[in-house]
Amino acid sequence: LMAIEVVRETWRIHLTPSEAAGLADKAGQSRDPAVVEEAARLALSVLPYAYTLSAAETQRALLQCGEQGA
C-alpha cells in the first residue's frame, strides 16, 4: 500500500480539501507512474469539494484527472 493511497483513503479526516489537492499536485509530478495514477485518484476524490478550492486548485485537479483518465 503506497502512502499516497493511504492519504486518498483518509484525507477527509486529517486534511482540508485544499491540502489534499496540494498533495495530489505534488505527487502527480513523480516519475513513478503508479504514484502519478494514485495522485490523480486523490485529485478526483477532492473534486466533490471543489467549491472550497481556489480556481487554480480546481483546474489543476481536473487536469490531473484528464491526464490520467481518472
Automatic annotation (TrEMBL):
<protein>
    <submittedName>
        <fullName>Shikimate kinase</fullName>
    </submittedName>
</protein>
<dbReference type="GO" id="GO:0031462">
    <property type="term" value="C:Cul2-RING ubiquitin ligase complex"/>
</dbReference>
